[in-house]
Design a protein that fits this description.
This protein has 5 helices and 22 strands.
Length: about 425
């Protein structure tokens, strides 16, 4: 029976020179390891915490063109969308259907209004009566002018005759044929004839003015009635509801053969040649938005240039409504309420220091950023300027080439230095 292997063990002697070489090699390896590990260890120990790089996002500070813009979803709306109303009570006959293409001046609906048509006939009849009065006044004026002219001419003849008689009587008196009383009587007749002539002349002028005033009054009454008739004719013609633009029928507000009241909505027309895009802009950007700013409109793989044409003066649910007008040729195949994407350029600057936008702007309020140096994220004070959808303008604190942590800094808990592990 074998108890152990002690009988088989044999002591081997080691030469003194070989042991010395082993100790020297071990010392050299230890020195190399200390030289490599201790600086990195000291650098890592200077950080208060460590965060994995997979939980962070980084961006490099660059210098170039900075475009401050906003993006929003919009819908196509018609800049010109007139709604037509009934100008009188009556029964409506529709001539079109929703979606029909119409031309300017085309009849879309007809209103049957017997009351309005009857009123037009009455006013036309009254205008005819005033026309007769006006023509009668002209005839009477010509007749009275003739009579007054005749009276004036007769007075002239009587005055001449009286003067000739007076001259004969005066000559006969000098020859002793007539008495003085006969001469005086002839002189009185001359004076009477002169007075009659003067009155006839004055009557001719006064009565002529009176006749002109009378004619003018008759003509004004006739013209006033003609204007009233023209207005009723216009209203009767407006019973034929016509399209004010070339476009498409949008919506019918009444049923066929329905009886409507005055000023009731009948139909709307969409002018497809004047389309705009309505967008909802967050209130925070509304103060920077202005009419005339350039915009880029995208949809269905197409891109168009545009310009802000209108901005709503009120805020609804934290948003402001704005309209963007297409520039150049009108896009084809667009429909009402079609969804499009819009980017509005608020500002454009060249040679600006920028970095990609991230959550670090909101988390720090733009006061500091974490700059990465040799695996350590150092909290660095900064000052930011304008911000766009994807970039932030850097005014102070960073330089070109700096590597910045743009998201995930909430894991740093505000530490001054954080180690970033692979």
């Amino acid at each position: 029976m074998i108890r152990d292997t002690s009988a088989q063990d044999q002591l081997i002697a080691v030469k003194p020179g070989r042991r010395r070489l082993i100790w020297i090699g071990s010392a050299i390896v230890a020195v190399v390891l200390i030289a490599l590990v201790i600086p990195g260890l000291r650098h890592s120990l200077s950080a208060s915490s460590s965060v994995s790089a997979s939980r962070l996002s980084f961006a490099t500070v660059k210098r170039g063109t900075f475009i401050n813009d906003i993006a929003a979803d919009g819908r196509v709306v018609a800049a010109v969308r007139p709604t037509l109303y009934a100008n009188s009570q009556g029964m409506v006959t529709l001539k079109v259907h929703a979606g029909d293409t119409v031309k300017k001046g085309q009849v879309l609906a007809v209103i049957d209004s017997p009351e309005l048509k009857n009123k037009l006939a009455q006013e036309e009849s009254q205008m005819d009566g005033l026309e007769v009065d006006y023509q009668r006044a002209l005839i009477d004026a010509r007749k009275q002018r003739g009579q007054l002219q005749q009276a004036y001419e007769n007075a002239q003849i009587d005055a001449k005759s009286a003067k000739r008689d007076y001259q004969r009587y005066l000559q006969a008196f000098h020859n002793g044929a007539y008495s003085k009383s006969q001469v005086d009587h002839a002189e009185d007749l001359v004076e009477k004839a002169d007075i009659k002539l003067k009155n006839a002349h004055e009557n001719l002028g006064l009565d002529n003015n009176s006749l002109e005033f009378n004619i003018k009054a008759k003509k004004l009454a006739h013209d006033r009635q003609a204007l009233l008739v023209a207005d009723y004719k216009r209203r009767v013609d407006d019973l034929n509801v016509r399209s004010p633009v070339n476009g498409q029928v949008g919506q019918l507000f009444v049923a066929p053969r329905a009886t409507v009241a005055k000023d009731a909505k009948l139909v709307s027309v969409i002018d497809l040649s004047a389309l705009e895009v309505q967008v909802q802009v967050p209130e925070s950007f509304a103060r920077d938005l202005g009419v005339g700013m350039p915009a880029r409109i995208s949809g269905s793989g197409n891109h168009w240039n545009g310009k802000v044409s209108a901005i709503s003066p009120e805020v609804v649910n934290g948003e402001v409504a704005a309209r963007v007008r297409f520039e150049g040729a009108k896009p084809k195949n667009l429909r009402q309420n079609q969804r499009l994407s819009v980017r509005i350029v608020l500002d454009k600057r060249d040679n600006v220091l920028t970095v990609a936008r991230g959550s670090f702007v909101d988390e720090s309020g733009g006061r500091y950023a974490y700059v990465v140096h040799d695996g350590i994220a150092v909290k660095t004070p900064i000052r930011v300027g304008a911000s766009s959808i994807d970039k932030v303008e850097i005014l102070e604190g960073l330089k070109v080439g700096d590597k910045v942590v743009i998201s995930g800094t909430d894991n740093f808990n505000g530490a001054a230095r954080v180690a970033i592990s692979d």
